[in-house]
Amino acid sequence: MKGIVFTEFIDMVESKFGYGMMDEIIETSNLPSGGVYTAVGTYDHSEMVKLVVELSNRTQIPINELLKSYGKHLLGVFTSGYPQFFENTNDAFSFFEQIDQYIHVEVQKLYPDAELPKFDTNRIDDSTLEMIYTSQRKMSDLAEGLIEATIEFFKENSTVVREDLNPNGTIVKFTITRV
Ligand code: HEM
Question: Where are the domains of the chain?
């Protein structure tokens, strides 16, 4: 997993829960990296899982909620760090359709070792888009936060309904409906 995912997670934890909390979760997580990340480095995905589990233990906030909030934080990082991906799109549905075919393709060129999910999109009708998330990293809660924040970014009003398509969390369907 790319370092930017870790450095931004640390920023979010420090601003929401304080520096003390961040130090504590790094100490107790027993990380191969020692909790030292650079934005361009690559680290084991399991380190992120450990950090989130420790944060959840200490804050009593469920893991899925923490990942969702983190997804919202991350979209803010993407809109300011990669504005070019948002400039040619006027609505959330077209943006979502571009993630797999364009945005994550460009991300992969920038960081050849990035591990990205797959998104299959399907327009059901004018107001409904289905997005199927597939990834061995099981970060659909992060995806949910990113999806909701994207809808807010485009100042739209939509509902997002998730449905797990298998028991282990690697395939999840999101149905997004404009209201
Ligand atoms: C400009 C917009 C975006 C950029 C620049 C971007 C970039 C990235 C980067 C750098 C990673 C980390 C890869 C790694 O750690 O190896 C990532 C992962 C991920 N991205 Fe995107 N992304 C964008 C938009 C989105 C959106 C809108 C969604 C959701 C709808 C999304 C879903 C995910 C998920 C869930 C992961 C975690 C890895 C996984 O689940 O396998 N991304 N993205």
Answer: 3-61, 90-178
3-class SS of residue 117: coil
State both tokens at 100: 């797999």
> Is ligand 1 within 6 A of the CB of residue 43?
no
Residue 172 makes CB contacts below 8 A (sequence gap 6+) with 132, 133, 140, 143, 162, 163, 164, 165
Structure tokens at 89: 């799109």
pLDDT in tens, the chain (179 residues): 999 999 999 999 999 999 999 999 999 999 999 999 998 899 999 999 999 999 999 999 999 999 999 999 999 999 999 999 999 899 999 999 999 999 999 999 999 999 999 999 999 999 999 999 999 999 999 999 999 999 999 999 999 999 999 999 999 999 999 99
CB 173 within 8 Å of CB 130: yes
Task: State in Å: Cα 116 to ligand 1 middle.
Answer: 6
- Determine contact, residues 163/172, Cβ cutoff 8 Å: yes
Write out the CATH class of domain 90-178: alpha beta
Residue nearest to atom 21 of ligand 1 (CA): 104
Distance 104 CA to ligand 1 centre (A): 7
Collapsed DSSP state (helix, strand, coil) of residue 162: strand
